[in-house]
Amino acid sequence: MKAAMFQTPFMAPTRSPKEVFEWAVSQAIVCDQLGFGTYLIGEHALQSWESIPSPDLVIAAAARETEQITLGPMAHILPYHNPTALALQMSWLSHILEGRYLAGVAMGSFPKDAYMHGIRDMSRNREMTIESLEIMEKIWAGEEFWHEGEFWSAGLPENDPHHPNRDVRPFNGNMIVGMTGNSPSSPSITFAGANGFHALSTYSGDEFIRSHWEVYSQAAAANGHAVDKSMHYIVRDVFVADTDAEAKRLAKEGGTGKAWMEYLLPVYKMFGLNRGLVTKDNPIDPEDMDLDYLAEHVWICGSPETVTEKLSEFSHNVGGFGHIMPFSFDYSDDPSAWNYSLQLLAQEVLPKVQQPEFATQN
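^ thats the sequence. predicted structure below, dont judge the formating
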């Protein structure tokens, strides 16, 4: 199991754009130094707690200061972008990073962001995403084409030997693509499997994760793609400290607890995801969920020994996965405890986590 981070970011709306940018870049550097494998940055237009509208600016800045970690957006909302401009931008970044790039794409889920981009009816976002990807993949192939579509027109002209086209293919000719799923039996996760993309599952209970792998692997098999658990990222919050009590206190009293109570729980309720967070062994009314319940049963909090045990149990319950990907939270005023948690996760916990044997799904 590898460590990854999802920098949405969940920072208080009082933070300035400069503060958000500097935190996002500094965390990429920290994660790289600690041995994290992947660092992905969200893209949102109007979400006050998820305030990075242009993840590529963070990626470009972090590219100069990191050496090993894979960087990427999670995700560019394809209906809100010109596919030619986005394909060129992503391909160029893959070269700047010499392959340390994951192209996160999505269909869009927030109506306000869609409205701001001129879309008042999101029912066709899936069709727009499919057409956008078709254009982008043709551009990444680097071969002459013309596409006259329902939403966009684009093409790559014939190469003129006297004025040759720039090579627009990604680094080593390969673009790794990923998609996030936020609902049970997610259409986005199914789409990812059908196209052989990597899959990111936002945690909303163990059954939720199992259902994601089922639809993902089935869609991949039905379309001739071989996928395995190393391509599955689980987005779940983790906080590690020297003792269980200290880990829970730092999570509840710090940026994790603040973001959950003021933003994330309301969002989970809006999408109905909070019901999946209630465990069978500890049933409560989802509306009564509080910080104590989250720290004990939803987040994975504790000492290195406790977190190792909980992650091993979780992995076996869901059949294993490749990456544990905590959200990033606002500990920017004093990041020492947060960075120490990341260090313990990457260097003390994950090397000892026991996972079930992986099997490639053909």
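The chain has one domain: 2-261+301-352.
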